[in-house]
Amino acid sequence: MSRPIVATIDTAALRQxxxxxxxxxxxxxxxxxxxxxxxxxxxxxxWQSLQETDGxxxxxxxxxxxxxxxxxxxxxxxxxxxxxxxxxxxxxxxxLTTSVHSNWQIQALAKAKLSAPLDIYLKMNSGMNRxxxxxxxxxxxxxxxxxxxxxxxxxLMAHFAEAETAEGIAEPLQRIEQxxxxxxxxxxxxxxxxxxWHPQTHHDWVRPGIxxxxxxxxxQWQDIAGNGLKPVMTLTSEIIGVxxxxxxxxxxxxxxxxxxxxxxxxxxxxGYADGYPRISPTGTPVMVDGVMTRIVGRVSxxxxxxxxTPCPQAGIGSAVELWGNHVKIDDVAAxxxxxxxxxxxxxxxxxxxxxx
Length: 356
Ligand SMILES: *Cc1c(COP(=O)(O)O)cnc(C)c1O
What we know:
Belongs to the alanine racemase family. Helix content is 26%, strand content 23%. The protein folds into two domains: 204 residues, Alpha-Beta Barrel (TIM Barrel), CATH 3.20.20; 123 residues, Beta Barrel (Lyase, Ornithine Decarboxylase, Chain A, domain 1). The strands form three sheets. The chain has an eight-stranded parallel sheet with strand order 8-7-6-5-4-3-2-9. A six-stranded antiparallel beta barrel has the order 10-13-16-15-14-17. A two-stranded antiparallel ribbon has the order 11-12. The structure holds pyridoxal-5'-phosphate.
């Protein structure tokens, strides 16, 4: 028999979340962001449940090719653009829309021999200072691109560093307005947070990612709890061992947790080699046998120890939810000093996945 840990992907939740995102987006078209192997869910497993989308946003050419080979004919956007001149052959063959964030890419487009023009997302740097042209360079880049026979439709693209708050988008929006003045082209600005919370950013295409998987762009589940979003990934396992601790007994590597009184703890078949964060401290939420409790002690490679005090009936074989519908991935992440994005992306290849 195999180890009891399993990740379950809920395709009905994907469809529901896409509907929620679409409703939030108003009339804007929607790129479903499936980069990083669909945020760890598996692009092959999820894309069909997202077929109602207008396009897929991702950044690995392999993922784009996979979607084309499975029969996806609508647009695919390369969020990080192409990486080498030679990549343009693949963009041409598979008809991929690409972001363009640097001058060398404009030159590469000028030199390329394409069968037909490619649609371009002209990426501007609105203050995050990762990729993109400075606002004052946007017009020039646009003119250069417009003059190239290899370039089809040009959409202005920007990305927010802090779309959780109104203050976070005010300055970048101002820069975008300034850069876009006099340019007659579609725009795509909004990630999940902006799609949910800032309609003035929606424009022609929104680009939600995390909300499709049912987690919060702010890292706080409460922020999306009323939106009808549903967790897509549930990570479950079982109790495979029980220890009865006496007062003063310690648990796990480093003996980080010490029982102050008699206490039962359960050992769960899940560890950091499965993608559960090693850094998660005592107190991180977990559900055993339908009862909310907490992990105790150090997460090890293959096991986690949990407090069975609130669930005295639990024992070997009891069901454990590490995250999912009851234990929100945002809450596990918050307890661990990170965000749900990182946890879902880190699901390890050794964890069997079931699609329901
Ligand atoms: C990842 C990404 C998104 C989606 O971000 P979420 O916060 O997951 O909605 C949108 N746009 C770009 C350029 C991205 O890289």
